[in-house]
Amino acid sequence: MCFIQVLLGDMGTGKTSLVLRFVKGQFYDFQESTIGAAFFSQVLSINEATVKFDIWDTAGQERYHSLAPMYYRGAAAAVVVYDISSVDTFVRAKKWVQELQRQGNPNLVMVLVANKIDLETKREVDVEEGARYAQDNGMFFIETSAKTAHNVNELFYEIGDFMLQIS
Ligand code: GDP
Ligand code: MG
Predict the structure, then answer these.
(1) How far, in Å, is the centroid of ligand 2 from the Cα of 2?
(2) ipTM of this complex
(3) How far apart are CA 110 and CA 113, in angstroms?
(4) 151 lines ligand 1 (CB under 6 A)
(5) Would you write out the chain's pLDDT as a tens digit for each of its 167 residues?
(6) Which residue has a Cα nearest atom 9 of ligand 1?
């Protein structure tokens, strides 16, 4: 099974870092900003099935906003990322969710990711707040850290597992 997934969210929330952690098992302290979008592909074996993830990692800057529909319209799953240490990125994540609800594919599987949980001391968005928003909008919710690898494989594995179940 193969499906297309898109990562959306403010610049600097850790989208590229999450994908690189998943695909390469590594973390970079000085990750260069993505220009336009980057494409990654990864194969996982889930419950004896082979699942291929085709991942569009978008840039997040406002000036690339008009390109985003090209990536999310063809996607089966969308991962919207915010940074728990910045409430602004949570506000921006909600804007992405609204846009996906209005303009995304109606069967789009949506996941809200609260990244950078290693920055607990700088936390500006409570777990409950993120979880409640996700629940109210029919999204999966998970807190991750691309830096420590916490929940990163779980994030992709859960999505793959769910896509298998509904395929
Ligand atoms: P993107 O713009 O959403 O793709 O974000 P990047 O992946 O480029 O990450 C932006 C910055 O945040 C980089 O300096 C990363 O090293 C850092 N970063 C990404 N994920 C984490 C995380 O989980 N914890 C911490 N502390 N820093 C992170
Ligand atoms: Mg990036």
Answers:
(1) 23
(2) 0.99
(3) 10
(4) no
(5) 999 999 999 999 999 999 999 999 999 988 888 888 999 999 999 999 999 999 999 998 878 888 899 999 999 999 999 999 999 999 999 999 999 999 999 999 999 999 999 999 999 999 999 999 999 999 999 999 999 999 999 999 999 999 999 98
(6) 14
